[in-house]
Amino acid sequence: MREQRLVVGILLVLGLTSSQRVMRAQESPAQGPMKQSKQSTIAAHPPSGKEAHRFWDGANQGLFAGVGAARALDFASTRHLRNRGVDEWLLTNSVVDNKPLFAGAEAAGTAASILVAYAFHRTGHHRLERWLSIAHIGVGMGAAIRNFTLNRSESIVPLR
Q1: What pLDDT, in 10s, does the model give residues 5-28?
Q2: 33, 75, 90, 139: which has the highest count of C-beta atoms within 10 A?
Q3: How many Cβ atoms from other residues are within 10 Å of residue 50's Cβ?
C-alpha cells in the first residue's frame, strides 16, 4: 500500500510539473518569425492575431508525456481495482481482465488524444490543442487516484 501511494504521488507530481511547464511556455512571447518550409506552407494558417507554433514543440511533448503517464497510471489503478474484486463500470470486466487488450485500449486513448490535438493544431485552435491534453491528464489522474483509494465495499455504480 505504501508503494502504491509513492507511485501515485510521483505520477501526480510529474503531471503537475508538465502542465506548469506548458502554461509557462504559453505565456512567453514568440521568439521571431517561424521559418517556412514545405510542411508549413501546406498546413492551415492560424487565424490572424494568434501565435503559431510547431506541433512537436517542448510544451506539447511534455503534455503528451503527461497524457501517456496518466493513461499508464489509469491502467495500473484499474488493474489494482479489479484485483480487489471491484467491477469496472466504464469498460466490461472481460476487457479489463485481458491485459494486452486493456493496454492496447489505453495506448489507443493516448493516440486519439494526440490526433485530436493535431486536428486542433492544424485548424489554428492552439489553446484547445493544449487544454485538451491538460484536461486529459487531470481526468486520468483523478480517476487513477479514485481507483487506488476506493475500498472493496465501495463499488462504483454507473448512472442509468
Answers
A1: 555 556 555 555 555 555 555 555
A2: 75
A3: 12
* CB-count exposure of residue 22 (10 Å: 0-12, 13-18, 19+): buried
Q: Do the domain assignments include residue 124? A: yes
C-alpha cell at 80: 489494482
Q: Which helix H or strand E contains 149, and what residues bound it? A: helix 126-149
Give the chain's length.
Answer: 160
Whether 7 contacts 15, CB under 8 Å: no
Q: Looking up cell 483523478, which residue turns up?
A: 142
Distance, CA of 40 to CA of 103 (rounded, Å): 35
Is residue 74 a contact partner of residue 11, using CB atoms and an 8 Å limit? no
pLDDT at site 151: 75
